Amino acid sequence: MVETTTPLVHIADEIVDEILSRLPVKSLLRFKCVCKRWLSTISNPNFHQKREFESIVFFNSKTRNVSLHSIDNDTVITESSFVLGTQSKYEGKKTVVSNSCNGLVIIGFGESFFLFNPSTRYFVRVLKLNCMRYNSVVVAGLCYDESSNDYKIVIRFTRYLDDQKYVVVARLKTKQWVEINFPFVTASTKAGPIVNGRMHWTVNYATKIICFDPRKNLFEEFPSPPSKFQNATADIIGLGVVGDRLCMVRRVGQTSQVLIMKEYGIGESWTALMVTTLFFPPFLFIKNGENHEILGNKNTSQILAYNAKENIKRKFDLPNPNLFGGISFVQNLTSPVGIEWDKIQHKNHGSTVKWVEDNFV
User: Fold this and answer.
1) Which of 11, 51, 96, 280 would bridge with 296, disulfide CB 3.0–4.6 Å?
2) Are 155 and 359 in contact (CB under 8 A)?
3) How far is CA 287 from CA 71, 172, 305, in A?
4) How far is residue 110 from each of residues 127, 128, 279, 361, measured CA to CA in Å?
5) Is the alpha carbon torsion for 205, 209, 210, 213 positive or negative?
6) Predicted pLDDT of residue 361
């Protein structure tokens, strides 16, 4: 009997590229090993993922472990853990975790800031400031400046000696710093999402939204909801993104309003998405079909997913009660180059890092 083999079907490169562009990062990292062409395609800086996969990253406040929670379209959460390479050196030091930008998260350990891609485990120190020994970092945010092709960190300091407050912006490639005007009440300042290339924070005791334009190095007050949504006692519990639109959760009396801005920058376009009696800081808004769900920390050991249209509440247990952060991000392969901190290169960097040290120590 003669054995026959089925010839392999040739698939056009264009179709293969289209399939690859719709896969999650975990699969893409594995498929780099399939063949040289796939490795070249996936490693190409111009490779574009057409489908977005949302995830949440948590950090262990005691051991500096990372807990990565992936979320699919049915809000099924799967968990995997790993340890940052700096665990022993930075264990016990104050930690600051920012928003996400292009799938990247800024983490501050002690006097250093690190850029972290939870999808690829890319982790590199990008800044070290001795002045952080003497100043409290209240909030930090990460954004991307398309005009200079550079990432920026925005940091609000409070100086221990005289309680003065400063906001500075650092460029990660050049390590150049500048202090900027910040004419807002800084109590309860919280970092928020990137929408339309701008970073959004809440200020003034969580009653206002401001946005930072990385091209201008400028904070501006963001349009509030129209009068029909105004309430003297309303405060913003948190900000998020649905698709590519900014949204917020506000506490109004005994309820929480979820509002979405349908047209960016237009205050009159704020629209009610849902109303709930639940109160918890959100870290992710997702859309399942025609329904919207809001995810947040119910307490230190549980995640709560709430669907207002169907009045469905689902709880997911966290694996460790010491987890904090709850930073949502879109999986991608971003690994910026040329931003690593070189202490020799930046030891005497003119009026950049040295300026910060002279003014904040």
Assistant:
1) 280
2) no
3) 12, 34, 12
4) 11, 9, 32, 15
5) positive
6) 44
Unique residue bearing structure tokens 């209240």: 138
Neighbours of 11 (CB within 10 A): 9
Please, what's the b/e burial string for 101-122 (b: 16 or more CB within 10 A of its CB; e: otherwise)? bebbbbbbbbebbbbbbbbbee
What is d(CA 22, CA 251) in angstroms, rounded to the nearest whole number? 38
- DSSP letters of 11-38? --HHHHHHHHTTS-HHHHHHHTTT-HHH
Helix axes 36-43, 13-20, angle to 10 degrees: 50
For 52-94, how does the pLDDT look when each residue is reduced to its tens digit (9 = 90+)? 777 777 776 565 566 666 655 555 566 666 666 554 565 556 6
Whole-number Cα distances in Å, 281 to 144, 186, 227, 251, 300:
25, 19, 24, 10, 12
Six-digit token pair at 241?
Answer: 């993104």
Q: Nearest-CA neighbor of 133 among 105, 153, 161?
A: 161
Using a cut of 0.90, tell me whether the model's pTM lies above it.
no
Q: How far apart are CA 253 and CA 231, in angstroms?
A: 9
Closest CA to 170 of 361, 44, 31, 346: 346
pLDDT at 85: 58
CA-to-CA separations, 10 to 6, 7, 23, 28, 96, in angstroms, rounded: 12, 9, 20, 20, 50
Backbone angles phi, psi at 235, to 5 degrees: -130, 150
Asked if 250 and 234 count as a contact pair (C-beta separation under 8 A), the reply is yes
Residues paired with 101 in a beta bridge: 104
Q: What is the DSSP string of 171-200?
A: ETTT--EEE----S--TT-EEEEEETTEEE
